[in-house]
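Following the same procedure, backbone shapes were mapped to integers, as reproduced here:
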Amino acid sequence: MEKRINTPLTEEKVLGLKAGDNILLSGTIYSARDAAHKRLIDLINEGKELPFNIEGEIIYYVGPSPAKPGEVIGSAGPTTSYRIDPYTKALLDLGLKGMIGKGARSEEVIEAIKINKSIYFGAIGGAAALIAKSIVKSEIIAYEDLGSEAIRKMEVKDLPLIVVIDSKGNNLYKIGQEAYLNTVK
């Protein structure tokens, strides 16, 4: 069963999601990759304001390709999330509620997800062109000099995701692996 979720995320919405849930996400999300995350953390460390209010928001780890004429955005597949792990806890502590990427997360990030009642969604790697069709609006709001890694404010409609790590720390990668290993015993 697919669940339809609209942004911004609230604690109530997050607590209602479980690892393995299929989601169709609509609303505003933000894009940021490694270089942009480093700049966000630098701002936090300097006591400066972030370029957008992070509370209740979702960051998609993506560096989209340039848009073809007449299109909103180019291919927009997820970036491997562990590269963002060093920056994640600080953003979750400031109110970030969701992240979208691919791959496993560190134990530190999983613990921060639990403490902050946040969520980690997986997007389908290799489906960048398909994912881009769910992005109906995109504008660069910070760090244009980073090119594809600039921070974008994006509007999405029915972006297909799966809950990988829920607010209780249940991890689909571990659950799936354990279920598989139990079938081959």
User: Anything to note?
Assistant: The first helix runs from residue 11 to 15.
